[in-house]
Design goal:
heteropentamer, A mainly alpha, C alpha/beta, D alpha/beta, C: alpha/beta, three-stranded antiparallel sheet, 13 helices, globular, D: alpha/beta, four-stranded antiparallel sheet, 7 helices, 25% strand, binds adenosine-5'-triphosphate, binds magnesium ion, nucleotide-binding (chains D, E), transport (chains D, E), Phosphate-transporting ATPase (chains D, E)
Chain lengths: 278, 278, 306, 255, 255
Amino acid sequence: MRAVSSSTSAAGPKTVAKQKPTAFRRAWGKGFILPVIIILLWQLIGSLELISKTVLPAPYDILLTFRDLIASGEFFTHLGISIQRAAFGFFLGAGLGLLLGLVIGFSKIAEDYLDPSLQMLRTVPHLAVTPLFILWFGFDELSKVLLIALGAFFPVYINTFSGIRGVDSKLFDVARVLEFHWCKQVTKLILPASLPNILLGIRLSLGVSWLGLVVAELMGSSAGVGYMIMDARQFSQTDKVFVGILIFAAVGKLTDSLVRVLERKCLGWRNSYLGNHK
Amino acid sequence: MRAVSSSTSAAGPKTVAKQKPTAFRRAWGKGFILPVIIILLWQLIGSLELISKTVLPAPYDILLTFRDLIASGEFFTHLGISIQRAAFGFFLGAGLGLLLGLVIGFSKIAEDYLDPSLQMLRTVPHLAVTPLFILWFGFDELSKVLLIALGAFFPVYINTFSGIRGVDSKLFDVARVLEFHWCKQVTKLILPASLPNILLGIRLSLGVSWLGLVVAELMGSSAGVGYMIMDARQFSQTDKVFVGILIFAAVGKLTDSLVRVLERKCLGWRNSYLGNHK
Amino acid sequence: ESNGKDLKVINIGVQQSLSPLLLAKEKGWFENEFAKEGIQVKWTEFQSGPPQFEGIAAAKLDFSQVGNSPVIAGQAAGVDFKEIGLSQDGLKANGILVKKGSGIHDIKDLKGKKVAVAKGSSGFDFLYKVIDRAGLKPSDVQIIQLQPDEAAPAFDSGAIDAWSIWEPFLSLKTIKSDADILVDGEQIDRYSPGFTLVRSEFAEQHPEEVVRFLKVYDKAVKWQKTHKKEAVDAYSKIKGIDKEVVENVLNNTEPLNEPISERIIQTQQETADFQYELKAINKQIDVKEVVDNSFIKKALKGGDDE
Amino acid sequence: MSLSIRVNEKAFVNGGRKANVLQDVKLSVENGEFLTVIGPSGCGKSTLLKIIAGLDGDYDGRISMNGREIKAPGIQQGFIFQEHRLFPWMTVEQNIAADLSLKEQAIRKKVDELIETVRLKGAEKLYPRELSGGMSQRVAIARALLREPDILLLDEPFGALDAFTRKHLQDVLTEIWREKNMTMILVTHDIDESVYLANRIAVLTAKPGKIHKVIPVDLPFPRSRTSPVFQSIRQRVLKEFEQTEEFSFQEGSGI
Amino acid sequence: MSLSIRVNEKAFVNGGRKANVLQDVKLSVENGEFLTVIGPSGCGKSTLLKIIAGLDGDYDGRISMNGREIKAPGIQQGFIFQEHRLFPWMTVEQNIAADLSLKEQAIRKKVDELIETVRLKGAEKLYPRELSGGMSQRVAIARALLREPDILLLDEPFGALDAFTRKHLQDVLTEIWREKNMTMILVTHDIDESVYLANRIAVLTAKPGKIHKVIPVDLPFPRSRTSPVFQSIRQRVLKEFEQTEEFSFQEGSGI
Ligand SMILES: Nc1ncnc2c1ncn2[C@@H]1O[C@H](COP(=O)(O)OP(=O)(O)OP(=O)(O)O)[C@@H](O)[C@H]1O
Ligand SMILES: Nc1ncnc2c1ncn2[C@@H]1O[C@H](COP(=O)(O)OP(=O)(O)OP(=O)(O)O)[C@@H](O)[C@H]1O
Ligand SMILES: [Mg+2]
Ligand SMILES: [Mg+2]
């Protein structure tokens, strides 16, 4: 009997509460299997020297480079600066995205006036607008942070907007009958109801901010993981490029996992599908 | 009385049906106001020569360049090729995203094994992996399309996945009681239920594919809007860069609007908030 | 920010390559020198030439060093700058790489081959010259547009037959992997000069600072020449590349700091005309217009303010 | 001083076809009156309540309260929806308090009292997905009662409750109604309930929903369901109701 | 040959606290029997039905059908959920057909018949958001009936219907039950209904839900609600039910 239990979401919190820690740990283990296989294969290819090292260095070489970078302290400088930039950019962009998403989601009028312009901005390529950013904001941190923010803005904006427009209008009717003040309407109705979508937007935004570093740090910088990658590329230091790529992947995955933990915490009230266990 | 009607979603289809065409047209008009104001201001700045033309050419100059590009036929070559690449990349990436999103959303086991790896891939910067793409796929169309597909994959994947996991488990119970075959479960339950999220993912993916052109067309190409921009930047032909930016914005907005029309068509069954009209 | 007399900050752009500017930056010579005037120095690193012109046009950049092709593009685009010194003649800085055993021994063998090059770079210009010298037409070779870092794997994996590229890639590839230089600038007597640039408005407002800049730069150039070993060490440390490669690169790209000669100007004019012919730039330019040797002459004469 | 309801026409367009749901519904409800509305399923009872509450403005007619037109919903009208409509992210007590703060002493006290009244003691911290159908309905009732509106609109508020809980809450409602002198409009499909609670019973017909009859119930409170007067009124309502349906029942069906 | 139900314990953990919902529920239902379950709101009736249907496997006990354990739901058991649970993106007829294709002649015909039976003619193309509460419930009933399951589990299937529609559908149900020899387990809060339909009535107590009494109803069909035997059984059920609640009512409350 118990075997079936976890496939039944209606099985309720008992199952969830009981299985959470182990299930979580087990899931973690499984997640590593695929990457480990890939890395082993990769090392094999490297060890057999099937591919030139300058093109695809083996994991072990990358590890050595990584160690050197850590030893020289260079690694932490780059990482620190990049995280700072990405964080500022993310908070600025995602914050604005949330705000505008709320305002425009809430008001049809704001949508009519603003949304089309924002949608146009969305597909303006970063690489193409860097000159403008240089013009307006110079080569300082500001322009980098703003460029990252520009990218981080849209996923949160669109997801928040759609989240709000996806809220069951029956609950809005309740809020109208109970005469919710608009700020209660936001905090007690709109935010919780569109939280699943907002968190999704945040996950996408985090990724985009982090990726935005590469372009932002092309713009006259002298430190940062993105800079490190592009600098290493300039000198064909492929192993260093890969260290950079791995840092990107690792930090990206880490932040994403954090948001998902938050998701689990905040969306406990949902009665939704948990996936088939078979 | 009628004044209030459209703010009530519960007012039902009558209102919607009646007001759609005019409301739509009115919304269109409103959307243009902001861009027009910006363009006018911009022209003013340009005409007064407050800013060097190399940095920010005036709209009129851009228009002239645009005309020349159209006249020489160059424009349509670039646009045609780019649209083709973006379209291939989008369909490939979004298609795979949808598929994997469905599979992984459906199965907890697939999630445990695959999702962590995919999340790591998500924050690997395009600019950093282009050398690998060239190595693996050469510098033909294939590697460009794949690079675009890589970007287009994630928004659809994540949104589909979350969409499925957001489906009310009560409806899943119904499907279980009625013993839906798994393919019916996909077509009659999962797809429609997560459609709002999937469409959102598609909108984001379209944007990303389109933006991906810029990096993809850096890679050994000699035509395409992205190429045109980067080429023009190489030669400081800012007006041409701006033509490119405007094309990006316009095509981006256009495709986005198409998806939203689709959204309106497909999600008619939803009883959701339409935004406050006041 | 730097308009008017009260100059607070000068902005120097430095490309991600091995230039004495890097040494001076490392040693803080510019900072020391300009600190006397109460001026701060701000460094900005660039990957390539064009963004530096964007910086100059936006008045966010005062000095920089750029190669021949971007300078022409910048001038054609109407960016307001002056060439105030020759920083490199680039005779051996450009070349065409082929793989060992590729069967390409002569430039004539390039016919029908795939050659990678980054459009708008000095390698682009160089490649056309080589093709011309071989008696071929541009349509006789398959020119593939690739940025250097993308051309590298393509070259390694044999997807392209030849690669028109510059230092440090020439040294990297010849030393680190099995590549030969088919032809370099010296062999066809082709300069690919690099220039020290200043933003025109800055030069008008602060001519003495321009001279001061060139003096400090001169110090760095001389130091590199006289302290070869230390210079190699320093570059190797800053950029984290092999000393052997660095040394080779330095041998091929002797830094200069001298007035721009008629010979160089003539080469530049040829390049500009050629690019116009190719429609890479959309108007004919006179490269002399942006040459201003007055500062470098003052700087090299020395002693007028000390 | 009263609530005046006039709905000349209310229609929905379903798949291109216009369907009249309500027609010529005219009613005047005195302050402090208890009106129950019965009618066949789908005849437009819920729609009527929504119009009265100001939730649906797309109709031809006019609702006014003490002479002032009602255009938008507000706390002076309470509404218990047919489908509970709890906020899924709030616990039972949060749902009852809704926009009000449970940290306020007075609210906290009232919420606790109401939880006691609707017999949900012990379930305060449960989320809607952990509630049974009847429990959800009781939360919705408590939420509406907390605000002590002037008019309370109830859409089958006891539909999911067992006989005893239902009886208990009917009595609670009667008590509150008499104490606070609220105006109540209650939709139900239980004829017993309608007679037990109402001053007047409005019987609606279907397609389109029109007022078939308004039956006064002149009985003192508390009422006994077994008294002959009660039964005779019940029979009358049943007969009127029967006429609204297109079909009839054999004798002794005993509804 | 029968359905055997044994639930030793079923508990939910709510906010860290474990709450026993069902305890020692043992029942054996013969093939073709009609069992109704009554009990106070929140006592665990819906939970019990879900366990029987195989929708909730997290309990201590065993449900078996003709000796084979039921571990997962299937079409041999039909389920009418308390909250309708229609697919919002399907029209009425699509909801009734669900995974089956309306293009198939046989299905189309049966769906049309059922729509007639539950009196939804004209509403075939409506989406759930355009339905009234009672209409939704009737769609859910039709959906379950279409599949002609061996066992039909009904969770307050007529809760939102007016007296006449309810009576009509009760009769429909009885007819189908007798015709197809289905096994039916119906949860209701209407004592009349339970007596009118059942072979046996199971009365549950609350906290935790135990079987208080199983009352046989040995009346021939069709039954008359006004007959004295009917009334006496009704009184008995009422009395047993009363004992399950912690409070009692004065005489003449007349439920
Ligand atoms: N949003 C809507 N769009 C279209 N039609 C609707 C909508 N809401 C209700 N209707 C239609 O209006 C009619 C009346 O619905 P209403 O909910 O008022 O019925 P009701 O009297 O409350 O029935 P019940 O007793 O079953 O709850 C129904 O035929 C229904 O199909
Ligand atoms: N998913 C769940 N998680 C936690 N507790 C639950 C859950 N589902 C039901 N319960 C609890 O189990 C008890 C029984 O619920 P159930 O829905 O079976 O009651 P019921 O007898 O059907 O009541 P009603 O007549 O009101 O529908 C309730 O106290 C409820 O709080
Ligand atoms: Mg209703
Ligand atoms: Mg129940």
